[in-house]
């Protein structure tokens, strides 16, 4: 089967979405299918990768996103889709790409929309006060569900905005984590810093919806309490300069974007606590990677992260003192026990099971299923 996948907001410095697209594409290929990923870029290009063929077509940069591009030109994309003649269509953006569901239906192609974001949650974050958010989200979500044969959500929290509408074509498939790459054995036995200095890590895109200021404010609160913690921030984005100014005088190291996944694995395994405060995360791959590395995670009680982290971390209100309290509580636990609990939680999630679930949503054979 030729599975053509469309995605926006994918760039060389992308995080979780790029990881998911790569892992799923590799899994589709291993199962005997032909994955083709179409993404926006500065120029047209085609290349072969372990995750399948990647076709880049020109797309404009979205202002204020730090360089993310989107596919907006319908005519060339429609021509490309007609030329590719997919057996299945998988779409990972429900803004400029929602129309492709109707294209697929007109060609008799089964289509899947993967909901990587909560429309209801994003509107609540960014809509002006007084905006009737829920009716608008409901109207757009109904249209999405009507345009595609299947809507895939990765957590119950992400699926809730569709379930309340009684959407009949909704399925829930969790994502996975590379349990070999992200493993406690990669912990650095001699990290820099004085003994007894807890290492806190925040690993995400530095944009408003990720709430990257919360780890900095939590660190300030911990230092005020006399806890000699330090913070390492891995990631880049439009909030970088403002965050550097906010962290002035605090022991915060900004690594910028880290392309080396093995380096990220070592950092997460070496951390004492990871903070993932995004309130509208629909899954949270970075948090799951931290758990796989044996490190507990403090998350916002809003969003899907409490569902993923479970008892291997803590879910708190959006307040620096609450984050500081949770970090101190986790540090007070026996280190071996908290790291074992994190790893056990992550072992519930593997990419082979995720690939199998997505292929089932596509209603295509999974030749590797017996091995999963």
TrEMBL record:
Highest taxon above the source species: Bacteria
The keyword Transferase belongs to this UniProt entry's keyword annotation: yes
EC number: 2.4.1.-
Transmembrane residue ranges: none
Ranges in coiled-coil conformation: none
GO biological process: carbohydrate derivative biosynthetic process
InterPro entries the UniProt entry points to: Glyco_trans_4-like_N, Glycosyltransferase_grp1
Keywords for the protein's UniProt record, in alphabetical order: Glycosyltransferase, Transferase
Pfam families: Glyco_trans_1_4, Glyco_trans_4_4
Keyword Glycoprotein: no
Residue ranges of every copy of the Glycosyltransferase subfamily 4-like N-terminal domain listed in the record: 15-176
Gene Ontology MF annotations: glycosyltransferase activity
Protein known as: Alpha-1,6-mannosyltransferase
Annotated organism of origin: Sphaerisporangium krabiense
